[in-house]
Design a protein that fits this description.
The protein has helices spanning 20-31, 46-53, 77-100, 120-133, 142-151, 178-185, 206-214, 232-242, 257-266, 281-288, 301-304, 320-330, 334-347, 350-379; strands spanning 7-10, 35-37, 59-62, 104-108, 136-139, 161-162, 192-197, 221-226, 248-251, 269-271, 293-296, 312-313. It is an alpha/beta fold and 380 residues long.
Length: 380
């Protein structure tokens, strides 16, 4: 099977059509000759219906499985849990049916567990079953393979394909200078700007960053908290924290793509004080803009940033984040670290990722699946 006759159903594509990861991945796969399709996902049995509607498909990639069953909108906690459990059961039947139809199931793991820790027992059942049924499993780094193998009975680490993402350099505009970005945001040229950027959720540790920043003895320092809070409670908490220090600025709102470069280019460092994490798209974003990254040395982060980025800290050290902020504030040449980060980002190739993934898809499809695909195509 050549790439030219490889057909992939990228299942989360229709849900996240403007997601940088999804867009860059799909473009790279198409450039490699893969026929990438992003089927619409109806409520009931979306995987099976996608496979039946695309009888020539060789494989389907399933990214964020929580989207298929997690329910939070009933207004009543026990009802949310019950509906989520029932949807999870239907989803597992859906996965099993797809595997019987002869489509290679590729599970791409982005998170070890749901970020909000919703319905952990249901989540474990779903993950274990999907891992058992999947024909291939991919992660972004070696540490992720070890973490998944340790957290679940299936699979073993050496059974997981490690395929690093490419960079986000091409995904966003970057033609605004530091000076212009700071003028636009009203930031003094000599200010030391620490930026937190992204959707604000509990696991991202914004309160920890505010506490560490409060201990930073730098009158010219500013902490910018920029991003859309996950819910009203989170927004109220972050707003209250910001009022505790006049050096803190907030932009608690969704940031459109064309405005991202203003915040990243105005910052001296990007601070990502995650309490737990496996992969971080925001870290990739920071590297792409040439920003030094302050983050805990957990998950894929040590494999994501280059060694020149010396601001990863031990999360078990109570003073680790504060010390990393102090070292960044005192560093004589942050620009050199930023340049190294951007060089590293440019070296991360989506073409290489696509090449590795096409091999995974081919192996997941297998010879018997190609025969089954031909039969289904003839019957259609």
């Amino acid at each position: 099977m050549t790439d030219d006759d490889l057909t992939l159903l990228l299942m989360s594509g229709s849900w996240y059509p403007e997601n940088a990861y999804m867009t860059l991945l799909a473009d790279a796969l198409r450039e490699a000759g893969v026929d990438v399709r992003m089927p619409s996902l109806p409520l009931f049995f979306p995987l099976t219906r996608a496979a039946l509607a695309n009888p020539d498909a060789d494989a389907m990639q399933i990214d964020w499985i929580y989207d298929y069953y997690v329910t939070t909108g009933t207004g009543f906690g026990p009802a949310n849990a019950l509906v989520s459990f029932l949807r999870a059961a239907a989803f597992l039947i859906d996965v099993a049916l797809v595997s019987l139809l002869g489509v290679g199931v590729v599970r791409t793991v982005h998170n070890e567990r749901h970020h909000e820790g919703l319905y952990p027992h249901t989540e474990r059942i779903v993950n274990e079953c999907v891992f058992a049924v999947a024909d291939a499993i991919t992660v972004k780094c070696g540490a992720a393979a070890d973490a998944i193998a340790a957290a679940y009975r299936v699979p073993e680490a050496d059974e997981i394909a490690v395929v690093p993402d490419g960079s986000f350099v091409a995904a966003y505009e970057n033609d605004v200078s530091r000076e212009a970005a700071r003028r636009d945001l009203g930031i003094d040229d000599d200010a030391f700007v620490v930026l937190f950027f992204g959707l604000i959720r509990e696991y991202k540790g914004v309160p920890d960053l505010v506490e560490a920043f409060a201990a930073l003895d730098a009158p010219d320092a500013e902490l910018w908290l920029v991003g859309n809070p996950h819910d009203d409670r989170t927004e109220a908490q972050v707003a209250a924290l910001a009022r505790s220090d006049p050096r803190i600025e907030t932009r608690l709102e969704f940031v459109p793509d064309e405005r991202i470069q203003y915040y990243l280019n105005a910052a001296d460092v990007l601070a990502l004080p995650y309490r737990r994490i496996l992969n971080s798209g925001t870290a990739h974003l920071g590297l792409s803009y040439g920003r030094p990254v302050i983050a805990p040395a957990i998950g894929c982060l040590p494999e994501t940033v280059p060694p020149e980025n010396e601001f990863l800290y031990d999360p078990s050290d109570d003073d680790g984040l504060a010390e990393a902020l102090r070292r960044a504030s005192d560093h004589p040449d942050l620009e050199s670290i930023g340049r190294a980060n951007r060089r590293h980002a440019r070296s991360q190739s989506w073409a290489r990722a696509a090449e590795a993934l096409t091999e995974v898809y081919r192996e997941a499809a297998g010879d018997d699946r190609r025969l089954d695909r031909s039969i289904r195509a003839a019957e259609s």
